[in-house]
TrEMBL record:
Transmembrane segment boundaries: 6-25, 32-50, 81-100, 106-124, 136-156, 168-190, 202-225, 231-251
UniProt source species: Bradyrhizobium rifense
Origin organism lineage: Bacteria, Pseudomonadati, Pseudomonadota, Alphaproteobacteria, Hyphomicrobiales
Keyword Hydrolase among UniProt keywords: no
InterPro entries reported for this sequence: TM_pro_TauE-like, TSUP
Protein known as: Probable membrane transporter protein
Gene Ontology CC annotation, any one: plasma membrane
Keywords, sorted A to Z: Cell membrane, Membrane, Transmembrane, Transmembrane helix, Transport
């Protein structure tokens, strides 16, 4: 048996190579800037493979990569405040997963492109929530982030913008974010598994693409410090914007 025997019928070795290249680029962005990997990966990868397969692939990779960070985050996080936001994700993730499972691939790609573009604008704006902490707002932010995660694994910007704007120590904010996404990823794993989005084929893809993503993260981390943070962020923003443009379904006849 060859590698092709374990892949989905609609995924060729050429597509696997493209996914690996995209994983390396998005991993590099994550390594040197700390963000942007999901936005880049989903916008590009969903243009070469089915959005459902791509979202499941990214979920498995992130779930494995984030697991070692959870014990330390559990000790340092404000677990009570994080639990309130997690309640929103408990509702948002299944809703996003449902839309991912029933929508046509092209429709999903348009939604992903619009989501990524909107989240990029959010990042560019430098928005941080600096108002009072309300339970209903925390649940709403968690629900929005969970919905984006369930639909396209792009729930980072809303939750990051919210937590980094709170008057708490950066180490606690980071721990809260890591802990939230640990719970959100778990909800996504359950939702994806029950809807059949996670399959043997997606796990095989994760075993192939995951190491390439890890190499990209390591490479990006090695570049950190060789240029200013401003330059790195601009490069990452540019990569996300390029991913949005090249991933648009309307350009399929030109670019693909």
């Amino acid at each position: 048996m060859t590698l092709a025997d374990f892949l989905p019928k609609d995924v060729s070795l050429t597509i696997v190579m493209a996914l690996c290249a995209i994983a390396f680029v998005s991993g590099t962005a994550r390594g040197f800037s700390g963000f942007g990997s999901a936005l880049i990966f989903m916008a590009l990868a969903s243009s070469v493979a089915a959005p459902r397969q791509v979202a499941a692939l990214l979920l498995v990779i992130d779930f494995v990569a984030a697991a070692p960070l959870l014990p330390d985050a559990w000790r340092k996080a404000d677990r009570k405040a994080t639990a309130v936001i997690v309640l929103g994700a408990l509702v948002g993730v299944p809703v996003g997963t449902y839309f991912l499972s029933v929508l046509e691939p092209v429709t999903t790609r348009w939604i992903i492109s619009c989501f990524v573009a909107a989240l990029l604008l959010l990042l560019l704006s430098g928005w941080r929530y600096r108002g009072k902490d309300h339970a209903w707002l925390s649940v709403g932010i968690g629900g929005l982030s969970g919905f984006c995660s369930g639909l396209a694994q792009t729930g980072g910007p809303p939750i990051v913008g919210y937590w980094l704007g709170r008057p708490i120590a950066p180490i606690v904010a980071r721990a809260n974010i890591v802990l939230f996404f640990g719970a959100s990823d778990f909800f996504s794993m359950v939702s994806y598994a029950t809807t059949g989005l996670i399959s043997r084929e997606s796990l095989v893809l994760s075993l192939i693409v995951g190491p390439v993503y890890a190499i990209g993260v390591a490479f990006g981390a090695s570049l950190f410090g060789r240029a200013s943070e401003t330059i790195f962020r601009r490069i990452c923003y540019g990569l996300i914007a390029l991913a949005v443009i090249t991933g648009l379904p309307v350009l399929d006849g030109i670019l693909r």
